[in-house]
Amino acid sequence: MSSLLIQNVLLPSDDRRRADVLIEGSRISKIGSVSPADYPDADLIKGDGMAIIPGFVNGHTHSAMTFFRGYGDDLNLMDWLNNMIWPVEAHLTEEDIYWGARVATLEMIKSGTTAFLDMYTLPEGTARAVEESGLRANLSYTLFDRWDDERAALDRKRLEEYLRLFSTFSDRVQLSVGPHAIYTVSAEQLKYGSDFAKANGLLVHLHLSETYTEWRDCCEKYGTTPVRFLDQIGVLSDNLVLAHGLWLDSEEIQMLADHGCSVVHNPASNMKLASGSQFRYEELRSRGVRVGLGTDGVSSSNNLDMITAMKCASFMGKSWSGDPTVNKAGDLFDSATRIGADILRLESGRIEEGYLADVCLVDLSRLDMTPTHSLISNLVYATNGDVIDTTIVDGRVLMRHRVIPEEREIRERFEEVSKELFRRSGVAI
Known about the structure:
By secondary structure, the protein is an alpha/beta fold. The protein has 2 domains: 3-54 and 355-399, Urease, subunit C, domain 1 (Roll), CATH 2.30.40; 56-343, Metal-dependent hydrolases (TIM Barrel, Alpha-Beta Barrel). Helix content is 41%, strand content 21%. The chain contains 15 helices and 16 strands. The protein has helices spanning 77-89, 94-110, 123-133, 149-166, 187-200, 212-222, 226-232, 250-258, 267-272, 281-286, 298-301, 306-321, 329-343, 375-382, 407-425; strands at residues 3-10, 18-24, 27-32, 43-46, 50-54, 56-61, 113-120, 136-143, 173-179, 204-208, 240-244, 262-265, 290-293, 359-363, 388-393, 396-399. The strands form 4 sheets. A 4-stranded mixed beta sheet has the order 3-2-1-4, with no helix packed on it. A hairpin with a 2-residue loop joins strand 15 (388-393) and strand 16. Helix 13 packs across helix 14 (375-382). The longest helix is centred in the C-terminal third of the chain and has 19 residues, at 407-425. The chain is globular and about 65 Å long. The termini are far apart.
């Protein structure tokens, strides 16, 4: 069994305690004083000038949408989707998806994300990218029937096929059911996806209450609000993960809590697309709803930096509420680590013995980390993903001192694939 010893590293607490952290196999086995002589074969990392933190869990993204960074900016959501994104996506191949996700995994590793929840088409391409990168991911196959029976049947067939395919991947790669949204998926298909997920122990990953238009159209079509609609068709459950959740009332929040649902906040995307600013972070948490944090895809947030997401979430909540005491740094850090891991059913998100060794080392020598009165406050308010020095997943070092061996080759190939995709789509960029 491989072992890794990180010596004299600052722990993520307010007592400024340093310790040695021993990783054996895929888990943290000891935190305290560890003699290298007792582990002569261990890979040694000097922790002086470093802090150790749990890796971030990106609770909602579309990783292969790296192709669309800087493309179709400054539009509203539906204009952006209908006229910019979906016409190009129609030309995507599995190989495109692989390269889009592969460069996304580089970005996530370099900014400290160790696991993510993804929703996209052709998830086998993303799965290959995750396997090769060493990251951990839960990948949602997107249901997108638009009330077309033929497409609904095809999605059901494919979901069965993906269930079998994903059983061949490592345990770092998991499958979930991803009905896109209530405005693209029929009630019948939503119920099917929910039942399929429950029968197979999977998560359901759904965009919900992202915009006022979605809320209004749901009220007009179904005679009720989005969460109440889901309750009526019987899909509220503890395996349901809702992305965005901006347009919720207090009764809906309580319904989510009662059913054990999770909500993932995507502040950068919400602000950029002007979907809404009043995400009710404090109320959701106080009622017992698990609240994770996500970046959304780079097409709508322009990066996959979870540290930036934490800052946006905190500032956004303080601003709209007029209360500087809400959306605290420690709470947002918790959403981005421990709670995100809990939502994905991972034994990670903590620097504790027995937990998965999905961890990062933070460079404390940077000016924006100086002085370190509070490690967590500096992470949330002062810095960005470049502060991550080393990223470790499943006990394996994926990036050491900012170096990922294959980074240049992956980036160069991605640029070639991207140009070919847009050429094939007939889009001038």
